[in-house]
Amino acid sequence: MGFFKNQFSNVVEWEEFRDDMIFWKWSNREIKKGSKLIIRPGQDAIFVNSGKIEGIFQDDGEYQIDSDIIPFLSTLKGFKFGFNSGMRVEILFVNTKEFTVKWGTQNPVLIPTPQLPGGMPIRANGTFNFKVNDYVRLIDKIAGMKDSYLVEDIKIRITSVLDQLLMKWISREGKDMFNLQANASEIARGIREALDMEVLDNGMTITGFQVMSFNYPQEIQDMITKTASHEMIGNLQKYQQVSMTDAMASGKLHGGGTASDMAGMMMGMNMANEMMKNMNQNQTHAPSSSQGGSKPNFCPNCGTKNEGANFCPNCGQKLG
Q1: Among candidates 56, 55, 81, 51, which has minimal Cα distance to 66?
Q2: Which residues pair with 137 in a beta bridge?
Q3: Are 129 and 100 a contacting pair, CB within 8 Å?
C-alpha cells in the first residue's frame, strides 16, 4: 500500500510565483489522499468549488489536506478520499502584499488655461499603491476567467483613465498653473479616490497615490526658472528690462546691427517712461505754494509793495 500512497500523493503550492503576480490558480488537477498544501509568507490559499469559496487559509506553513484542510471546508468537509478517486477543486493563491507601481503620462495632458487657448501641455509622474482586499469580487470579476493576473494588468487599466483624472483635478486644484507642485497633495488625494472606485469592483483597493513632479514644456520651464531667479513673477516690464540688460552684458547684443539698435531703443524708451512716471509722481506729491509758500514783495500787476497780504491793496491782484 505504501507504493500506491506515494503514487497518489502530490503537493499543492504556488508553482509559478513572481513578485509582480497578484494571483495564480492551481486548477484542472485532482487532489489525492495524502496530498499536502504549502502556503508561503505573503500568500493566502483559497479553495474554490464550482465558483464558490469553500475556505480561505491565511497562515503560512505546510498542511495535510485530508486532515488539516478538508474538515474546514464549507460544503466539502465530509469528503472521503477513495482508493482511485480524489477531489477536484481550484485553489487560488493570492499575493497579499501591497504593490507599488510607477506611473507617468505617455503624452502631454492639455490643461485648459486662459493664457494658452490650446491648453497648457503638462506631463506628470509618480507612484501608486494597491492591494487585494475582497476575494469574493476578485474571483467573480477576474479569477473566474483568468489563471493569473499581473501588476502590469492593473497598471494598464489605471493609466487608461489617468490622463482624464489629471486634467480634472489639476483644473480643480491647480490655482497657480505655474506652480502645481504646491497643490500636489490635494491633486493626488482626489485622483486616489477616483482610482479606488475604478478598481474596487474587482476586489482591489488603491492604498496610495503620489505625484512626484509636474513637467512643463522646455520654453515654459525656462521662463519660470528665469522669472523665479529674479523674483519678478507678475512684473513683466521689470523682467524685460533685466532680460535686456543680461543680454547686453553677456555680449549677445553688440555692434551696430538692427537687433542691437532696436534693443537700445526699447531700453531707452522704457527708461524714459520710468523717468516721466517718477517726475509725475513727484509733482503730484509736491506741496503747493498756497500751503505755507512765501508772498511776493511787490504786486506783479501794478508794482505796489506788498507787506505779506494775500491780495494787492492797490489793484486786488491775488498774491498767494
Answers
A1: 81
A2: none
A3: yes
In three-state secondary structure terms, 249 is helix
Predicted model pTM: 0.65
Q: pLDDT-based confidence at 9, cuts 50/70/90?
A: low
In sequence order, the β-bridge partners of residue 21 are: 150
Q: In three state form, how does the secondary structure of 155-181 look?
A: HHHHHHHHHHHHHHHHHHHCCCCCCHH
Write the burial class of residue 218 (CB in 10 Å: 0-12 exposed, 13-18 middle, 19+ buried). Answer: exposed
Q: What is the mean pLDDT of residues 197-201?
A: 93
Q: Which helix (DSSP H) or strand (DSSP E) does residue 136 occupy?
A: helix 135-138
Evaluate whether 8 touches 86 at the Cβ level (below 8 Å): yes
Per-residue pLDDT at 291: 45
Cell of 49: 468549488
Instruction: Provide the residue type at 9 as one letter.
Output: S
CA distances from 281 to 11, 43, 90, 269 (A): 93, 78, 87, 18
Q: Render 27-73 in DSSP notation, one character per residue.
A: -S-EEPTT-EEEE-TTEEEEEEETTEEEEEE-S-EEEEIIIIIGGGS
Place of cell 496610495: 208
Question: In angstroms, rounded to a whole number, what is the distance separating the alpha carbons of residues 208 and 194?
Answer: 12
- Retrieve residue 287's grid coordinates: 506741496
User: Alpha-carbon torsion 56, 60, 65, 71, what sign?
Assistant: negative
